[in-house]
Amino acid sequence: MTETRHSVCALDCPDACSIVVQVEDGHGTKLRGNPEHPVTRGFLCAKVTKYLDREYSPARLLHPMRRTGPKGSGEFTQITWDEALDTIAARLQAAAREWGPESVLPYSYGGSMGLLNANGMDRRFFHRIGASRLDRTICATAGSAGLVATQGHRYGVDTVDFSHSRLIIAWGANILTTNVHLWPFIVEARRAGARFIVIDPHRNKTAELADRHYFIQPGSDKALALGLLHVIFRDGLQDADYLARYAEGAEDLEALVREYTPGRVAEWTGIAAADIEELAREYANTRPSVIRLNYGVQRNPNGGTAVQAIAMLPIVTGAWRELGGGMQLSTSQAFALNRAALELPDLQLRSPLGRPARIVNMSQLGTALNELTDPPVKAMVVYCSNPAAVAPDSNRVRKGLAREDLFTVVMEQFQTDTADWADIVLPVTTFLEHTDLYLSYGHHYLQLARPALPPPGECRSNVEIFRLLAARMGIHDPELHASDDDMIRALLDTDHPHLRGITLERLDREHFVRLNLPSPFLPFAEGGFAGGKARLGTEGLRYEPVPEQHAGERERYPLQMISPKAHDAMNSTFSYRDELDRETGIVWLHSEDARKRGIASGDAVRVFNARGAVTLHAEVDGKTRPGVVAIPSLRWPKRSPNGSGLNSLISERLTDLGGGATFYSCLVEVQKCHDEQ
Ligand SMILES: Nc1nc2c(c(=O)[nH]1)N[C@H]1C(S)=C(S)[C@@H](COP(=O)(O)OP(=O)(O)OC[C@H]3O[C@@H](n4cnc5c(=O)[nH]c(N)nc54)[C@H](O)[C@@H]3O)O[C@H]1N2
Ligand SMILES: Nc1nc2c(c(=O)[nH]1)N[C@H]1C(S)=C(S)[C@@H](COP(=O)(O)OP(=O)(O)OC[C@H]3O[C@@H](n4cnc5c(=O)[nH]c(N)nc54)[C@H](O)[C@@H]3O)O[C@H]1N2
Ligand code: SF4
Ligand SMILES: [Mo]
Hints:
The protein has 677 residues and is of the alpha/beta class. It has 27 helices and 27 strands.
C-alpha cells in the first residue's frame, strides 16, 4: 500500500523544509519537497533528496553497545537497553555522589533542530540532576549578540520578500550551498532587474553566479562596514529622517567612521578603495536593498562586532522602510515560543545542587575535559553532536575523551569518531521516525512532524531515552515523564501575538502554519526595535586587525585558513558516505601560494600549525585570495589519511561577543607531501 506522510527536515539549515514522504508497506521510497509550502516550493536539496540512503544505510546503529576495546578503538559489544540504562544511571549517580552533579556535562548541538529532541527533555533531565550547563556557542552566538546589540530583536527580512529587492548582497553567505530555498526568490528579483553582489574570501558556488564578487580578507568585515558607513555619511546618503525617528547614536557613529576612509579600509580588507566607494554608493542609492548575512562572517575574533556594524547599514540608509529592504541573518526570534516552559530551568532548584549549575562553553571542550577542576568533568552525555570532529582544537578534545576516568555516553545514528570514544553507545531515531516541532531561522512557518517511518532495530528518540534514564535514576517528577504532545503544548502556551491561534491540533492538520505576522512582514519599517530605537552606539566598534596569538606565528604559519561548509554535506552528518571524501578531502590554494611551495593540483599536501596537521589534496584554482586557503568542512577525522581532522588546526580562541568559536581565523602552513602519507 502506498501512502504519503508529512515530515520536516531537521538538519541545521535555515530552510527547514516541509517534506512529503512516500511510504510503501511501511518502507520509505521517496522524499519530495512539499509543493504547498511557500518556501520549500516542492524541492529539497540534493543531500536530503537522497536522505533515505542514510535512513536505510547498513551503517545505521541499531542496538545499544558497551565498549570492549581500549578507549577510541571503536570496539563494542551489543547489550540490552536494560543493561545500558542501568550502567548509565549508576555511573551518573556515582559521579554526582563523589564529585557533585556538575561533574556531569551534556554536549549537544545541531544534529536535529527538533525542539523536543534537542532542546526539550534533555534540558529538563540535566537541569533536574544538577548537571553543568552547556553554553551552545559553536555556531551562531557571536552573530546573534551582534545583531541584538544593534536591532534588539533577531528579526529579519522574510525570505519570500527578497523577490522585491533591487540590490541583494550575499555577505559571507553561500546561498546555493547553505540556504538554497532563498535562491528562487533571488532569481525572481534578478529577472526584474536586481543586481546580486557577493562579499566573500572564497569564490564559492554563489559567488560564481554574482554580478560582482568582492574578495574580502577574512575577518575584516567590520572594517568594510565602517568604510561603507564612512562614504554614506560623507556623501550625505543616510536617511536622516529614519535615523532621527528610530535610532540613537547616529552622530557618534558618524564621528567614529570619519577615520575609516576607503584608503585605510582597503589595506585591511584587500578591496580597492575605488571599489569600496562604488559599493557604498550602489548600496545607498538602490532601493529596495537587502543584505543576506550568514554566519561565515562571525567565526573570527571580530565576528560579533562585525555583525553589529553590518546591521547598522540598513538602518543608516533606511532600507528597512521598504518591502524587500533590510537584512536577514536569522528570523528565529519571531517564533516567540515559550522556551522556558519547555526547558524548565527552575528544575535546577529541585536538583541536589539546589541552584543554577555552572556554565561550560562548548567551543572550549578541550579545556573543559582536560583542565576543569571543581569539579572535573567525570561523565559526559553526547547527543546531536560529533565533538571529536566539529569542536575546536580536536587533538585536545581527543586527549580529553581518552581519559580513563571519564565516562562517556554517545547517543547516535552512526559510528562517529565521538562514538568511537564512548563507553556506551545508544542508537537513536532519525527525524523521519519521531515527533517534533520545528521553528526556522530563515522563514516564518512553524511545523510539526509526526513519525513517518518506523524506527529500525532498537532505536529510540532522545526524548524517550531521557525519560527512561530519569525513571532508572528514580526521578519521577511528572515534568520528566511528559508526553511529546504535552511538551508541544507547553511551547505554544504563550500570549505572544505571533502565536495567536496556533494550536497542536491545527499543526497536526496543516503540518506548517505561518506565524501570526502581518503580510508582508516589515519588522522595522517604522522602528519597532527592542527598547524603542536601534542602537548605533560606538562602544567596541573600532576595528583592530586580529592580533597573533603567539609571537612569530604569522611568519611560521603565513596562510589564513577558512573552512566553509561543504556543498553535499551537513557538518559531519553525511561523513559515512565514501563519495563525500572527494569534496571534503581537498584544500583550495591560490596559484601564487601554490607556486611558491612547488604544489600543483592533485598533490597530497600537509596543512599544519602548532596545534595539528591534516593531509589533503591540493586544488589550485584561484578560488581564494592570495594568502588564504580554504578547506570544505567537515568530515570524520577517521576518514583522513592521517586520522586527524581539520579541527586539529583550530584554536579555542573566542569571539568578541557571545563567546563563539573562531573557526575562520586560523593561521597555517601548507607543504607538499613527498611520500603519500
Ligand atoms: N550544504 C551544507 N549546508 C549547510 C551546512 C553544511 O555543512 N553544508 N551547515 C549548516 C550550518 S551548521 C550553518 S551554521 C549554516 C552556515 O551557513 P553559511 O554561513 O552560509 O556558511 P559558511 O560556509 O559557514 O560561511 C558562508 C561564507 O562565508 C565565507 N566566509 C568565511 N570567512 C569570512 C569572512 O571573514 N568574511 C566574509 N565576508 N565571509 C567569510 C565563507 O567562505 C562562506 O562562503 O549552513 C548550514 N547549511
Ligand atoms: N572547521 C569547522 N568546524 C566547524 C564548522 C566550520 O564551518 N568549520 N562549523 C561549526 C558549526 S556552524 C556547527 S553548527 C557545528 C556542527 O556541529 P554538530 O552539530 O555536532 O554537527 P554534525 O557534525 O552534523 O553532528 C551532528 C550529529 O548528530 C547526530 N544526530 C542527528 N539527529 C539526531 C538525533 O535526533 N539524536 C541524536 N542523539 N543524534 C542525532 C548525527 O548523526 C550527527 O552525527 O560544527 C562547527 N564546526
Ligand atoms: S538541508 Fe536545508 S535545504 Fe536541504 S532539505 Fe533540509 S532544510 Fe531543506
Ligand atoms: Mo552552524
